[in-house]
Design goal:
Blueprint: H1 23-42, H2 47-51, H3 61-80, H4 100-103, H5 110-134, H6 153-179
Length: 184
């Protein structure tokens, strides 16, 4: 169970990571802040805007939402908890299109993409709760399906922070190019 010390919320509705807390609370404080940043950067955009590629890159915000939904499922449900991939990831032929999560996003509406991502985040939180309840020191515990040697849960959580931080930077640039909205 994560116990935060009244982190506060910024003007965009994002929880501020606590400045004084145990390692687990601080790590999840940063992850939740970054998750909320993605929600903020994609909020209010239409399906067409989420499909836009306003910069010389194949990246689009809709693809980012779908990619992050996949990342949530892969790392928290599959790697950490040892479960099989959830739908729709279980039916993807990744060898045919390794970027299916990004490339298939234009087939989805804004509501579908937001729901897929939000559901994946909720499921990740549930999987973490189950994992943590089974281990006296969850961050140091071995994951269910290590993909890189002797992998513990701390690596997974830290990787998720890195993954979101990188994509939050991309989201800043894409959102500004789409409608001029700025902010960190």
């Amino acid at each position: 169970m994560i116990h935060m010390t009244s982190p506060g919320v910024d003007e965009h509705g994002r929880p501020e990571p606590p400045q004084r807390a145990d390692e687990l609370t601080i790590l999840f404080g940063f992850l939740d802040h970054l998750r909320a940043t993605i929600a903020w950067k994609t909020d209010g955009l239409s399906t067409e805007q989420l499909r836009e590629r306003p910069l010389p890159t194949p990246m689009m915000l809709g693809g980012m939402l779908k990619h992050l939904a996949y990342v949530e499922d892969h790392w928290f449900c599959h790697v950490l908890s040892g479960r099989e991939p959830c739908s729709p990831w279980d039916a993807v032929q990744w060898e045919r299109d390794p970027d299916w999560d990004w490339n298939s996003a234009p087939e989805n509406s804004a509501d579908e993409l937001r729901a897929l991502w939000s559901s994946a985040v909720d499921t990740s939180r549930q999987q973490w709760g189950l994992f943590a309840a089974e281990h006296s020191n969850p961050l140091d515990s071995q994951v269910g399906r290590p993909v890189r040697g002797d992998m513990n849960a701390r690596w997974v959580v830290t990787h998720m922070i890195e993954e979101y931080a990188r994509h939050c930077g991309h989201a800043d640039l894409l959102r500004e190019a789409i409608d001029g909205a700025v902010g960190d």
